[in-house]
């Protein structure tokens, strides 16, 4: 018990050779090199902050109350780790959150006896993942959805057809385009997705009808979780964007393509996507993703100065979407993509979002839009993969799909592959359930 | 002091003959028939709930602690009136908020001695408007901006020109179209509006630049303040929409038309409007607006059942926008319009917004979009009035404008005209200040 934690502080928390005293399977998404943050509760206790490692959750509030997590975050008054969302903690900014991750890494190392050898402390601080309930990690004040993938954008133009087919809008290579999403309907992975009704113009009809959507789709996305915010009227320069970026979650922007096609011009999407959006429970920090930086696609023309990012902009993160029909034993992967393919970067999202002085807030989500890549099976939504329901795709384990059917469970996942370990995101899932029996939408 | 308030409870709070013992000028926006809600503070005290009457503010927390405001709102635990925003109070729904307004009306009547004749109580409960500071009345979780005015939409199509000129989008008469706005940048009336920089494609140029906007505009709007919310996955039927609508504020959706023109296709507006949006401080309740219901324009084709509203949909509320250049003594009115002109109604906004199951939250703003009407000087923004800066308008008190100039103060106002009294909204103002000296937008 008398070991000074500084004795084991020599290695960087991202060092590939680090090992924990807790067992972590090689294919686990949560090795000691990851340490994503979330909110969990145990029976009868309030939701609080935790860190995932292997099959366990580290209770940050318990660590702090044991005196083992004295960081600048602990000086902010009432414990930031005892709160039901991470917003106040991540609002402190990168230095503070990095410090906590580094400290947790030290405490979990195989050669640090402080927690390893203290049975009573382990019982207090460590919970089996199977024994906890996960909650929304953040209160989402703002949700913006971008369109960072050139492949996705080209596919959409191609499917719509017309004069613009084969080339993007004139502004596309000058700014990372985006729209404001609906924050109130962002839910945690695992929340069922009831098929919505909506106003739709059916093919060949003169007038629209209000009916259950026949084109329910998923979108394979990731999203920045904003850490420290910026003041209204200020901008975040591209070189300072990292300081405002806490981490990344998976995001499924469930879409009703028939409602969307009818409503989207001229103001953009609204009720076609506001019925539900799912995010994964564990926020993977940008600290953990740092070793996986990589070059992005060449940006031609070069971005304006306020968007001109030096160095490696992108991250090599494999992404995958699967569908498991209700009568299937196993999911069928329907998309394999990679964040590396995105034309615009996370930092460019932040710089553009604030370019006119908009204030970002801790916990805001800045989503990538559908992450498609080039090549077969690399389309991040069924709209692209089936060309808006015109060409069925075959599922690996049998059957075909044009759009999602009731009973389908969609799972998004992602991971960065290290040498002998994976920095992963876990899953973002949602089960499609039938439209409810309220036929006229008149309930209150 | 022994008068039973029920003795004076016979008259409806909207009765045109009601008078208060407090002096209210005939042109005041806040007669006893109005009683709008807001948040105020006095020197050294915390922000709390108040009601405006004439030149005074009624302190609801003080009324409640004096035992004079025992309503169902008082039973909700810690005082809802002591909180810095009205969200928790208005979340109770129309019955609860109506009850409070009715009780305040009783206490302010000329023939009720309880407050009138108690000098000590009056000193505690009543504050001169000039002595208080007003605050944001709500925490805005969601901000949606609609396009309810047919005249505004037709003007926009006409200015853009092309094949679509003279007719609206095919979906326009079937649904009240809208987009998600940015909630974080909604500010209180009186907050200066710094001219933003943004990405703009100047005429005749091949590539865009990042520069101060040359086309800063106002938009004359009103917005529903949502009271009781609805659960995610539920819809609010048109006949039940009123139960979710607490009141209305003025809203100025400050817009940068050059940034907007360059960014808006295909996803809609984003940074061109997210720099700042202003609202008026006093929320005029739908209870107070009820006597001013009127027919809206005929809706052809008839709306689908979920949007088909019976009875009088609209409200006869005069709206006005003025500009006061910095060297002018008086403002020049540049737009006179009326909410009555809106094609789609407030209730239809709510029904459509929730049609796919989106959850509304207490304090959400559902804005009308620019309120234009037919006829001269009835265009609710400079984009329309000057045809995007092509035709200068003359100001009543001298000078012309294409777009807003530094030093211009824009004031929106609105009122419903009763017999001998006005149910008004006060003002929503903003002074345009110069772009800041940060030339490259690189501040953090």
Automatic annotation (TrEMBL), chains A, B:
Domain Fumarylacetoacetase N-terminal positions: 33-137
Cofactor(s) named in the record: Mg(2+); Ca(2+)
InterPro entries: Fumarylacetoacetase (IPR005959), Fumarylacetoacetase-like_C (IPR011234), Fumarylacetoacetase_C_sf (IPR036663), Fumarylacetoacetase_N (IPR015377), Fumarylacetoacetase_N_sf (IPR036462)
UniProt cross-references to SUPFAM superfamilies, sorted A to Z: FAH, Fumarylacetoacetate hydrolase, FAH, N-terminal domain
Pathway: Amino-acid degradation; L-phenylalanine degradation; acetoacetate and fumarate from L-phenylalanine: step 6/6
Record keywords, A-Z: Calcium, Hydrolase, Magnesium, Metal-binding, Phenylalanine catabolism, Tyrosine catabolism
Presence of keyword Membrane: no
EC top class named in words: hydrolase
EC number: 3.7.1.2
Domain named Fumarylacetoacetase-like C-terminal: residues: 173-423
Source domain of life: Bacteria
Matches recorded under NCBIfam families: fum_ac_acetase
Record PANTHER family: FUMARYLACETOACETASE (PTHR43069)
Protein name as catalogued: fumarylacetoacetase
